[in-house]
Amino acid sequence: MATPALMRNYARTDxxxxxxxGAWLTATDGRRFLDFAAGIAxxxxxxxHPRLVAALRExxxxxxxxxxxxxxxxxxxxxxxxxxxxxxxxxxxxxTGLEANEAALKMARKVAHDEGHPxxxxxxxxxxxxxxxxxxxxxxxxxxxxxxxYGALLDxxxxxxxxxxxxARAAVxxxxxxxxxxxxxxxxxxxxxxxxxxxxxxxxxxxxxLLLILDEIQTGIGxxxxxxxxxxxxxxxxxxxxxxxxxxxxxVGALLATERCARVLTPSSHGTTFGGNPLAMAVxxxxxxxxxxxxxxxxxxxxxxxxxxxLNAVVADHPGVLAEARGLGLMWGLVCTxxxxxxxxxxxxxxxxxxxASGNVARLLPPLIIDTPEVDAAIAxxxxxxxxxxx
Length: 391
Fold this sequence. Notes:
Layout: E1 17-21, E2 24-27, E3 32-35, H1 38-41, H2 50-60, H3 73-84, E4 90-94, H4 97-114, E5 122-126, H5 135-141, H6 144-147, E6 157-160, H7 165-171, E7 176-181, H8 197-208, E8 211-215, E9 239-242, E10 253-257, H9 259-262, H10 278-291, H11 296-317, E11 322-328, E12 331-336, H12 340-349, E13 352-353, E14 355-357, E15 361-364, H13 372-390
Helix pairs in contact: 2-10, 3-10, 11-13, 12-13
């Protein structure tokens, strides 16, 4: 068979979309789908949001790209907005979550070096994580499926079970410089941490002089009902990576850090060509206008609780298909007793889009703008899908 023009590194569903509005997508063949995938937790404000469309159109008519050789006023405004609403003292903009994680790992090593401990080059990471597919992030993730065929990976990562505070404590050595985890594992199966886990990691880092790095690429920008998920635990990290929801569908990544960490990124120490260009910043600023508006995050928490209650009821009614619903805010996972791909396909047949995850989990990652009608519609479609799998 001839090699196609488009590389085959994705197992794509034979479905293409023409346009969308809010939480709904319309396929090229006219079928409508309720989108509880949101581009894998990206389209937090849904599709064709008027504020985002207007911001992008206005900026596109003025200036697209100048590079980081010059000031980008939009970067300054978005950075100031983020700093005013979170733990960070400073922000670096890139284009993807992968880039943000790479920058986070480089920053951690540079902090150790600049503080006179160049040997503190190891990072404790968690099983079940997903941090990306570059050499460093593959090594941090540790998933054999992603690593096969690429030879030796970057050394420097010590893996412990997610949620096991004592295992993390036991893994600390004189060469440990940081702990790097997701506050809620996403690709790993929507796994919230045990009570006290993040607080315990923060205390361990303070006790041993380590940096706490949080990957909030999927959980950040309102997904769990707070701007960042670590707020639920009442702690702050030293370094945080963000992306996905920050651009609402436009490629935007960010590295947020305290002054202690941010100061090590000096001219020529790290950089990006496209990151933080005027188009990206116009969209990110519009996203923050919406997400930080009074009542928005409270709405996510309220409707997320409604969705969670409804999902638990479906689980109780269909034990032959579903074993558990778990999640936070508008980030939910259904642990399946049938193959998760079967449930996702059955939901798609009913006009509902879900996302697969590890652990035989189907994820629900709807736009943050949904309300009761969308929840009711999704639950009806989910119940219909479950019925087809139990007949």
